[in-house]
Design brief:
homotrimer, Aminopeptidase, Glucose Oxidase, domain 1, four-stranded antiparallel β-sheet, 12 helices
Chain lengths: 448, 448, 448
């Protein structure tokens, strides 16, 4: 029986509550791909990670094939009856306004209004999430039930929104480690009031960043990116492509990490990269979590940019319920009741553990030829009954036998079928005894 | 349910009838590896493909390990009773005479005659097909029932056949395309009156050639070869080895493509070559035809030469009922009733579709880094409901995401699980928009 | 139904009896990792293989990470009651004394004695096998039943044993062949009176050596090593590392090859090496023996040294019941009744056949392009019925079709699914006819 964090909260730590509290603060902000709410989001995130830097990409800047759009801000948006009763109000729920709607102030017939209204007839009480970033139009999103109540022949529509040159806001934390090799964490900051997709990603990413920042020692450097989906990721990559390609050894897009119904893995376009091996090790060997396996054909978040041809970064996602697979997705039903401290903690634990696995992983090589002489070093119980080794001794032998300078510790753990963390104290002891060295450090003896 | 051409003729086109009509004309000619009937066969083929050139290899010429034999022609061959009644006559069925029989005119005892007679006791009414190209002897093939009727003590045997220096006749059509990369089609022209093996191969090859010749545009050049089996293929390869090795990217031996009982695949000696990938794509993804899978151990036609060590051309066969697997094989029962317009059309359609797949296939690379901006190009429905893309948009994304300069379009279609033809209009649109370029053409931007 | 040597002795040859007779002579010697009994073992082995050379490694010599220990010899060891009755005596069974026990002559209380006594409570009548090579202590091994009878309060303990500078004794036979490429056979000589582990290994290795020495022709050279386990293997490898790495193409550790209950395969650390392919071919295709498959994680004999990182020799074991898997392992119950002529013959036959497979294996290349012309060479029945080749002709075609200079004969046999020995006469004929040559010999014609 798996006994991971998904199973009835057995392992829910106080961190789950802290992540949930942060998600709750992030939830109501009326984010889209640009504008003040993204900056306010950064302010909220800084309560956990004051190290967060803000980067502004000015409107009109070319980023690969794209151009940074004008910045869009809203002060009010509503539909009211001719006698001044507000029947739909963005102030109640920011999903009501189609993102990047053009300004509007006028009376429209019911029929004209219906041309600008989006509902989900299959979910009568849900307000859908709709955007129109790159086409000049306006629109409102309503529940099907709300729509039914719009029976009058005319309505006044007011949208006090403005798109004008400004900038697109990204966030970044660079955490130095012992090497320039980088681990990338990425999440997106453009979704308004929805919880699993995507308040959860920001909240969990903040706590993963906190974990990284508080590590007493880091072999890897870390690059943690908060950016609006698609255009933000593209802007960020375009500004950092060379360094990303040179340094990033593994990456994780944090998305849909808040509910408590499933675990999901999205691999990179190229199979078998380190990040994928680590993710599977975390899910299968360390946390024993059953998970849904997806194909890169089912991609849908910023791995689309990181894994694009010519970018080709080894980026995967360990999710809870994947975007597009749960009924509440991209509607007002994806609210704070859908996520939970246990769900967020599970999402956090996966990526946090992936980081720990990466830090524990290295490629080692035996400093001796044939087996080492363990007895005089006190590394072998002195009297052997000859039938079997104690488990610790068996692991010592396995680590020495497979440390050939090619197989990394993660690979050895997979061969043995144990968590990499079981090998860490053995590796430490063997290093202290001078029996193992990192594969990339030249041997003084020059033996191997 | 597969609904391909094998299923009760649903898709039988008029071409099936045309191929059958050609097969009917080719059937009666008394072909063997040399001689006038091979040249007459070319004449018949020229009604469909006037472009067919004849190449003569003179007797005595060394071709690799072999020597072109003398040319053998027959004017008459029969067995008659001492009172002049013909009991077996080559003029009735050219299978009656063992190919390359030596001349004969004399009276032989029944016992001596039996030393020179071949039957198929397991198929009492079938005349077997027997040759003796390289050993000087004579012989007749009879049905077991005919043999029973030979009860007299003596018979007169007449074989007016002559083997003398002449030449071995091959046919060739070279069809230029936009590149020198070649697709090879090969069939053999040495089998006398048998239908599936091998009137069908010649008839279908002629119509495939016609298809190729009539293509408005060809990326590949085509080499279509009609040659007697084994010695003809060896002669042809020996005369063209360097150019074949340099140019041929995929090849198909057309054999046993006329009956309507099965589809069969013979792979090349080296697994996974382009021709094999294309053949499987045709059978599985495009035509949805169940097929019998064979091993190269079960080879038996001219892929033996094309796939020989040192020749190593990527040549496969998509057959109907494979040689050696059906009861009528190499007997007079493999007659025109065994093949049909539907059977021939199925055989034609497989290789014709393989050609179309090859023409549609190319290795492309994205001209942009990250995803392209589709909206301003009108390549993305302007208002996305955020839940799912329309299928066309999903294919656009997949083609862009996998066009990495290594994965060919066939590979992308296999990843997606759709016919390559579904991707062709998308590729055309993306090329028009400057978003894809062939992988082997240098990028002006030099980005990737 | 498999009909190999394991099945009711159908194929038991007189060699089984000879091997058993040798094992019987080797069994009683009180071997450990050093000392006179190892040298006496060599003397016994020389009755079968007078070619055996002895190599002495002096105490104190450093071998990689290890140091050759002092030589230990025993003249007597017993426990007696205060009235002089011997209750445990090494002279009865040399397992009674813990190997490398320190000298002792004194009276000890029953309680103190129990601190130095080893039993197997789970096997009341078995004396366990215990060693203490590298820790200074003394001890006795008793059956649990013997222990029960030690009811007196005091006993006299005598151990006349001495560890002093001397040497560690290894044995070696180098058998030259046509090339310097070597096959390695290795067994170990340090186990006292136990039969499957490990009198069987020495006895079978001696007869394998005899087989090799008596071969009329050897393509490979052979290196046959008899050494104490672990320290002996390490000493031997340290003295021969460069030549081993340069020459050894396949190796076999002979261990646990005497009982008749199972066949077992221990692969090398790196999968798919020649020795492993050969072992599988022997078990599956030649002898049709079902076998237990083990992982290198379950290693336990001198493949630990040969397959260590930096040594990396392609060494496997074909065993009968593997060490550690049968109940009698490392106890006095592993006695001469556990092994049998049939069991030993099966062990011998596997490694002997592996040698024969290796000698038969080579990588060949066709000297002609396309198929060879077999008829004029008499290699094809002159009149072909056209339906199928005789099996011999089919093998001729297969050998020619797959001899591409890359696929070795073992690989061709595996593709065909037949024993390599079925191909040997065909290869001989094709070589005589000049149609095949070894792949590494330059072609005069330069054709391929």
């Amino acid at each position: 029986m798996p006994t991971g964090p998904h199973s009835k909260g057995l392992f829910v730590s106080p961190i789950g509550d802290q992540i949930y509290a942060l998600a709750k603060e992030l939830f109501p902000l009326a984010r889209t791909i640009t504008g003040e709410p993204v900056r306010q989001t950064h302010e909220v995130l800084r309560r956990v990670i004051p190290e967060l830097n803000t980067i502004e990409f000015p409107s009109g800047r070319r980023c690969f094939d794209w151009v940074i759009p004008d910045e869009w801000n809203v002060s009010a948006a509503y539909i009211e009856t001719m006698d001044g009763q507000r029947v739909v109000d963005w102030a109640d729920n920011n999903l009501h306004l189609v993102a990047y709607s053009t300004p509007m102030d006028g009376v429209v017939s019911r029929d004209d209004l219906l041309q600008h209204v989006h509902t989900r007839p299959d979910m009568p009480t849900a307000v859908p999430y709709v955007t129109s970033y790159y086409r000049q139009t306006w629109g409102f999103c309503l529940s099907a039930e709300q729509l039914k109540s719009l029976t009058q022949s005319q309505y006044r529509v007011v949208i006090r929104a403005e798109a004008r040159p400004g900038s697109l806001t990204c966030g970044e934390i660079l955490v130095p480690g012992e090497t320039e090799d980088e681990i990338l964490l990425h999440t997106y900051t453009c979704h308004p009031s929805m919880a699993n997709n995507e308040t959860s990603g920001m909240a969990v990413a903040a706590f993963c960043a906190r974990h990284v920042l508080d590590l007493p020692r880091r072999r890897f450097s870390y690059r943690i990116v908060f950016a609006p989906e698609t255009i933000g990721a593209i802007a960020y990559i375009s500004a950092n492509l060379d360094v990303l390609r040179q340094r990033v050894k593994a990456g994780f897009v944090l998305t849909c990490v808040g509910d408590d119904r499933a675990y999901s893995l999205m691999p990179a376009r190229k199979g078998g990269v380190l990040a994928e091996r680590v993710a599977r090790h975390v899910l299968e060997r360390v946390l024993h979590l059953p998970y849904d396996e997806y194909s890169f054909l089912q991609r849908g978040s910023d791995e689309r940019q990181y894994c694009a041809p010519g970018v080709d970064l080894p980026v995967v996602s360990i999710m809870r319920s994947k975007y597009g697979t749960y009924p509440e997705y991209h509607t007002s039903h994806d609210d704070l009741s859908l996520i939970s401290p246990a769900g967020l903690y599970g999402g956090f634990l996966c990526t946090k553990t992936a980081i720990d696995v990466l830090e524990a992983n290295e490629t080692l090589v035996s400093t001796v030829l044939c087996e080492p002489w363990l007895s005089p070093r006190g590394l072998r119980p002195p009297l052997v009954d000859g039938v079997s080794l104690v488990p610790w001794s068996a692991l010592v032998s396995h680590v020495m036998a497979y440390s050939d300078g090619e197989t990394d510790l993660l690979g050895i753990a997979e061969i043995i079928g144990c968590p990499i963390f079981d090998l860490a104290p053995i590796v430490a002891t063997l290093k202290e005894n001078g029996l193992l060295r990192p594969a990339n450090v030249a041997s003084a003896a020059g033996n191997t």
